[in-house]
Amino acid sequence: MVMKERSLFGLTMILTTWVVLLPVCATSSQAIKARPEQIVQRQPNCNNPTTNLEIKECIRLRYQAADRRLNEVYQQLNSKVSAEERSLLVEAQRGWIQLRDKNCEFEVYRNRGGTGYRGFLNECLERMTKQRTTELENSLKDRVGIQPFVYRVILVEPTKLPLADSREKSRIIQRFNSASCTASLPKQQ
């Protein structure tokens, strides 16, 4: 009788396990078979994230977007500079990436091991990446459609400057006389 009860108990446990695990296994196999359009629908609404997981994911997505923009601007600038400047730009960018990464690791170091660490790190990376993008955009603007500058210097004898204040005039004359200009002007004929 004890043997029959043990067998019956064992059979009941096996059946209970199957009943409990069968829906889980079926759900897991459905998740594996999910179509790409179903996966896209699971992306968080970054305009209004509601959970910590969504917030972290949105921060990561913002950093990735900032990094893509930086790479676009970098490639544009890289195509506009001379070979010598390109070499310097590549070296500077590699150094900047190391600086950014180490700076952000330092900035969020105290949060290591915490649940917000990765989010804080991505926020720092995004901020510094956007700053670098602005720097490179400004360098790009300086190069687009602008020919090398030619400066025209007009020398005026300081004693002929129309200044009302004699102290100001004497100060300008003093600066003019002490200036170290080495350019020579062509002689007029």
Structure in words:
- The chain is an all-alpha fold.
- The protein has a domain at 52-143: Substrate Binding Domain Of Dnak, Chain:A, Domain 2, CATH 1.20.1270.180.
- The chain is built from six helices and no strands.
- It has helices spanning 2-32, 36-41, 52-80, 83-107, 117-143, 166-178.
- α3 packs parallel to α5 and α4 (83-107) runs antiparallel to α5.
- The longest helix has 31 residues, at 2-32.
- It is elongated, with a radius of gyration of 35 Å.
- It starts with a helix and ends in an 11-residue tail after the last helix.
- Mean pLDDT is 76; it is low at 18-22, 24-31, 147-154 and 181-186.
Number of helices: 6
Instruction: Give the CATH topology of the domain at 52-143.
Output: Substrate Binding Domain Of Dnak, Chain:A, Domain 2
Bin the helical content: 55-70%
List SSEs in N-to-C order.
HHHHHH
Record field, number of beta strands:
0
- CATH architecture annotation name of the domain at 52-143: Up-down Bundle
Main pleated-sheet profile: none
Tell me the radius of gyration: 35 Å
Quick tags:
189 residues, mainly alpha, 6 helices, 69% helix
Blueprint (SSEs and pairs):
Blueprint: H1 2-32, H2 36-41, H3 52-80, H4 83-107, H5 117-143, H6 166-178
Summarize the structure.
By secondary structure, the chain is mostly helical.
